[in-house]
Specification:
The complex is a heterodimer of chains A (98) and B (494). With 98 residues, chain A is mainly α. Helices cover 57% and strands 4% of the residues of chain A. Chain B is built from 17 helices and 18 strands. The N and C termini of chain B lie far apart (70 Å). The interface between A and B is medium-sized, with 16 and 18 residues. Bound molecules: iron/sulfur cluster (2 copies).
Chain lengths: 98, 494
């Protein structure tokens, strides 16, 4: 389940980052960019690469929120059953002992 | 997500049929796949007409992909997307970020072509040309050469780790990794001159970002083609999800002919199916075993089907051995299956409002793009007014405006250009009118333009600044600009 969630978060963000990367850096030249009023010192290659990961991270943050907010009430609410009495297969179930 | 149950072709007591019934992929433990519990698929290899086509396309696309960066043109790499210099070289053409529109048009053309192909012939792209299919095919071939056929592989995976198993696995992953590295290297070679890149690899002096992207792309290839395989198509590919929107009853699909095949059942080669009350399907399960996505096409069209036609080849071989006519599984359309249409019926329905609409849009965009490309002038000029001094009175009562000319020579040879100005009587270029520019370069030139004071009507007036190549090549650009003069009532221009 965790792997699936991670994939749901990272994969759509990756696709979107690829698209934004192309559009953004076609329109803006890293050599003309400034960071807090200072020209960026890095090479274009480095800025393209870092930019890609920034876009990816932003997309992932958005996907993360989507995943986080779309959980059903059953996933959000606390289980009314004590941990030992939860049904088989429940990930939060604990054995009867200790 | 639709679960597909596999038939059990190896059911005990099945009468002898000429095809050896092999239980479909039994060995592997269900592994936790990306999105749901996934049973590892060991596709049985298949030969036949469509397999040959698939391999032909593997060769074609990969010779193109691996070979193109090595091709030369005018002493440079023929196809190079030089991101560092922000110039794209494609054979004789040089594109700049300003040529964004062509990239957009290209993408639009690609998208509409995909729509058109999908509406007519279904998932041709997926089955034959998609890199995911192509690399999976190649990786599977390596796996087969090293580990053996699908049964041997399933057995090997189920067996405990021995020296032999370790050796085979190491050899396979080594071969995969080598191919993946070469793929990553080629990919980066489209963005950094590949010969230089090769030299850097050999001398271990690769730049950090190049190293990173080679391994990133290589790792993606290794993971997608070696491990994820059909899961990419099933769960990750957006096209697989929306291709259904382009489908209609006349789209070519890979289909099992239920009328002919059912009821299914095994029988001897000599037996008369009619007498047994059976259709043509001998229920051998070959179509399921060869399927790279692990579905049973006999359950009908499913979004998991990538249209690779492996099941057609597989079933045709069975039909041949049984002495039945081929094509129990074949390319057909929903319409044709329902109404028993032949090839002519299918092909005549390729022309229908949906395909005509796609074709019309595609043709329009292609013509527009081709025209734009043909009329493209390999010289770009931007006129920017000097913001410091608007207008200046100089000697002899002349008025002077200063501009900055951003000139881009988009050809691959050096050029000498002449700057001219027109639009007002007596207007002239007072700075050096002849400029020299290196091949494929951009430069800014200050240009001083003067107008005799008597000719000025005051305020702002339209003028044209021209830049013309001096070599008679006809390369020429005319840009509009504004000439400011002081107002005639004595007030200075702002
Ligand atoms: S459709 Fe063809 S390959 Fe599939 S089980 Fe029937 S006879 Fe075998
Ligand atoms: S059902 Fe047939 S065409 Fe579709 S993916 Fe499986 S083998 Fe390929």
């Amino acid at each position: 389940m965790l792997t699936q969630r991670i994939a749901w978060i990272l994969w759509p963000a990756f696709l979107v980052a690829c698209a934004i990367e192309v559009v953004f850096f076609t329109l803006f030249d890293p050599a003309d960019m400034q960071l807090l009023g200072e020209p960026l010192e890095a090479s274009r290659m480095a800025i393209y690469s870092v930019g890609f990961f920034v876009f990816w991270a932003l997309g992932a943050a958005s996907s993360f929120l989507t995943c986080f907010l779309q959980r059903s009430p059953w996933e959000v609410n606390r289980c009314p059953l004590p941990a030992t009495q939860r049904p088989d297969g429940c990930p939060k179930r604990e054995g009867p002992c200790c | 997500m639709r679960g597909v149950t596999r038939p059990n072709p190896g059911a005990p007591g099945a009468p002898v049929i000429p095809i050896k019934a092999v239980p479909a992929a039994t060995g592997g433990d269900a592994e936790q796949g990306l999105f749901e519990v996934r049973r590892k698929i060991y596709p049985r290899s298949v030969t036949g007409w469509f397999a040959t086509w698939r391999w032909a396309l593997v060769w074609f696309t990969q010779i193109l992909f691996y070979g193109l960066p090595w091709a030369a043109w005018n002493d440079r790499q023929a196809v190079l997307f030089d991101l560092g210099a922000r110039k794209f070289y494609i054979f004789g053409l040089v594109f700049w970020p300003q040529d964004f529109i062509y990239l957009t048009l290209l993408l639009v053309i690609a998208a509409i072509s995909l729509f058109l192909f999908t509406a007519v012939a279904g998932r041709l792209w997926c089955g034959y040309a998609c890199p995911q299919t192509v690399y999976t095919e190649i990786f599977l071939w390596i796996e087969r050469v090293i580990e053996g056929d699908h049964n041997a592989r399933a057995k090997l995976d189920a067996s405990p780790l021995t020296g032999r198993k370790f050796g085979l696995k190491a050899a396979k992953h080594g071969a995969w990794a080598a191919l993946a590295f070469w793929t990553g290297f080629t990919f980066v070679g489209y963005f950094t001159p590949i010969k230089m890149l090769g030299g850097e690899v050999l001398s271990f002096s690769l730049g950090p970002w190049e190293t990173f992207w080679i391994f990133f792309y290589g790792f993606a290839t290794y993971g997608n083609a070696g491990w994820m395989r059909e899961q990419v198509c099933k769960y990750m590919c957006p096209y697989a999800r929306f291709q259904g929107a382009m489908f209609d009853g006349d789209t070519l699909i890979i289909a099992y002919d239920q009328h002919r095949g059912d009821p299914r059942g095994s029988r001897g080669k000599k037996a008369d199916p009619k007498a047994l009350g059976l259709g043509d399907c001998v229920d051998c399960g070959i179509c399921v075993q060869v399927c790279p996505t692990g579905i049973d096409i006999r359950d009908g069209l499913q979004y998991e089907c990538i249209g690779c036609a492996a099941c057609i080849d597989g079933c045709d071989q069975v039909m041949e051995k049984m002495g039945y006519s081929k094509g129990l599984i074949r390319y057909s359309t929903e319409h044709a299956l329902r109404e028993n249409l032949g090839l002519v019926g299918i092909v005549s329905r390729f022309v229908r409002p949906r395909t005509l609409a796609y074709t019309a849009i595609l043709a329009t965009v292609v013509v527009a793009a081709a025209t734009a490309l043909l009329m493209r002038v390999p010289l770009k000029v931007d006129v920017i007014r000097d913001r410091g001094a608007m207008v200046r009175e100089v000697e002899d009562g002349e008025l002077e405006n200063v501009y900055r000319l951003q000139v881009m020579n988009a050809t691959e040879s050096a050029h000498r250009y002449r700057i001219t100005v027109e639009g007002l009587p007596g207007i002239r270029v007072a700075s050096e009118p002849v400029i020299d520019m290196a091949a494929a370069s951009t430069r800014a030139f200050p240009v001083r333009i003067r107008l005799p004071g008597a000719q000025s009507s005051g305020g702002s007036q339209k003028i044209f600044i021209g830049v013309t190549a001096e070599d008679g090549s006809g390369i020429q650009v005319r840009e509009k600009a504004v000439f400011l003069s002081p107002r005639k009532d004595g007030n200075r221009a702002p």
